[in-house]
Design brief:
Largest sheet: none
Strand content: under 5%
Structural class: mainly alpha
Order of helices and strands: HHHHHHHHHHHHHHHHHHHHH
Shape: globular
Number of helices: 21
């Protein structure tokens, strides 16, 4: 059996494991890499070669900064600032603003951390509004906004960093690492569409779909004492946390240093100043994501080196016209496939599966591989129609939503997002 066929078999067994979710994602990646090395398809060093890369440094650094902001009570500061604006006097406006704010914050912080921060904020705002703002309407919108916002920058969510690493290490002509804002070129229209959606049709749809759910489910689950707890945090800790986060954002945006170093410097400020204790940082760090990043590169290397990715890509190209296939149609196919699959499997696993294939599709049809890589990466962030595609949407289940609630409310914006990314990407990236 050829190396390409063996790699494809291992690759799809890993995808089945990703979907099955009985084996941790990082362990599946590790086992796949070990299998490829034992079969001689990749070198043994490829199993762990990604552990010391910029990608891993970025994830560790930004995660610690996020933990520091949470520890310093910044979520309560954001909630207080929002309450002072008076936006809770109009629920439709409040939900629209929440979508934009969660999206903006998720561009620089973990979207899971952002939605965790906004759950108590929404609870507090609903109480202050005297029934105008209903938690059931705001929670789901916040989750979707956070999911979309994670695709606005390179560091918005770990799978984008993974995708960038896979592209950079592919060795294929015309490929390179993503720049800081590049993914946002095609995700920004999605965020704008989502805000408009919840300001218009989406808001009305929520009124109908969620009519039989309790208005404020969090009041029975949470004590609402977060503000009292935050007052115990010294002002200097809040100042240091905000300064470190600002340094990180400015460093990323203006490329002051290597972005991996910038994120670690910001984390070091948090740790040295005691904003977050070292033991707490080690305990709360998302090590699963770090290890997925470290071990996933082996699967992509196997697809590239064995020719398995090229074989899958050739099959896709043949299905849509062979040598005469229209690159724009193939790009749209990659985007649509990514957006559909990400609603049923984690986007971390999906970028590992989709990026090598999309690169080969681009090269086979003579298109710009970076356009395909970036558009496909963004498509893997469009998990708006189910509660299982991405963690920040899953977290909104505290609102008592049912599976079909996500489908009915999220599917329209998911379709609009697919159209937006498919149409905008060739323009902003160059097909």
């Amino acid at each position: 059996m050829s190396p390409a066929i063996l790699t494809i078999i291992i690759f799809f067994l890993c995808i089945l494991s990703f979907i099955w979710e009985k084996i941790p994602l990082a362990v599946t990646c590790l086992l796949g890499g070990i299998a490829l090395a034992l079969l001689g398809i990749i070198d043994y060093v490829d199993i762990y070669s990604n552990m010391g890369t910029q990608v891993v440094a970025i994830v560790i650094g930004t995660s610690m900064v996020g933990l520091g902001l949470e520890s310093a009570g910044i979520s309560d500061m954001v909630g207080s600032a929002l309450r002072r604006t008076g936006i809770a006097k109009n629920e439709r406006l409040f939900i629209t603003i929440i979508v934009l704010v969660t999206a903006l914050l998720s561009a620089f912080l973990s979207n899971s951390a952002v939605i965790a921060m906004f759950i108590p904020i929404i609870q507090g705002m609903s109480k202050k509004s005297q029934g105008i703002v209903k938690q059931k309407h705001a929670l789901l919108a916040a989750g979707l906004g956070s999911a979309a916002g994670g695709g606005l920058t390179l560091v918005g969510t770990a799978p984008i960093v993974t995708a960038s690493s896979i592209v950079e290490n592919s060795g294929l002509p015309g490929t390179r690492a993503f720049t800081f804002l590049e993914v946002g070129y095609s995700m920004l229209p999605v965020v704008i569409l989502m805000a408009l959606y919840f300001a218009t049709f989406g808001y009305n749809l929520q009124q109908r779909v969620l009519a039989d759910l309790p208005d404020n489910p969090l009041d029975t689950l949470m004590s609402g004492e977060t503000e009292q707890a935050s007052t115990a945090v010294p002002v200097w800790k809040k100042a240091v946390a905000l300064a470190a986060a600002l340094f990180m954002v400015v460093g990323f945006a203006f490329n002051l240093f290597d972005i991996g170093a910038v994120s670690l410097m910001a984390a070091a400020i948090m740790l040295v100043c005691g904003v977050i204790p070292w033991k707490a940082a080690l305990r709360d760090m998302d090590w699963n994501t770090v290890l997925v990043l470290a071990f996933s590169a082996a699967l992509a290397a196997g697809l590239n080196e064995s020719g398995g990715g090229a074989m899958i890509a050739q099959g896709i190209v043949s299905l849509f016209g062979g040598a005469d296939a229209n690159p724009a149609v193939l790009l749209f196919v990659c985007v649509a496939v990514g957006a559909v699959l990400t609603n049923f499997m984690g986007n971390a696993a999906l970028v590992i599966a989709m990026i090598p294939i999309s690169l080969e599709v681009a090269l086979t049809c003579g298109a710009n591989p970076m356009c395909f890589a970036l558009a496909t990466t963004v498509s893997c962030m469009l998990a708006f129609s189910t509660p299982i595609g991405t963690a920040c949407v899953t977290q909104t289940l505290v609102g008592g939503y049912r599976y079909h609630d996500f489908v009915k409310i999220g599917l329209p914006i998911n379709i609009l997002a697919i159209l937006a990314v498919g149409l905008v990407s060739p323009i902003v990236y160059g097909l």
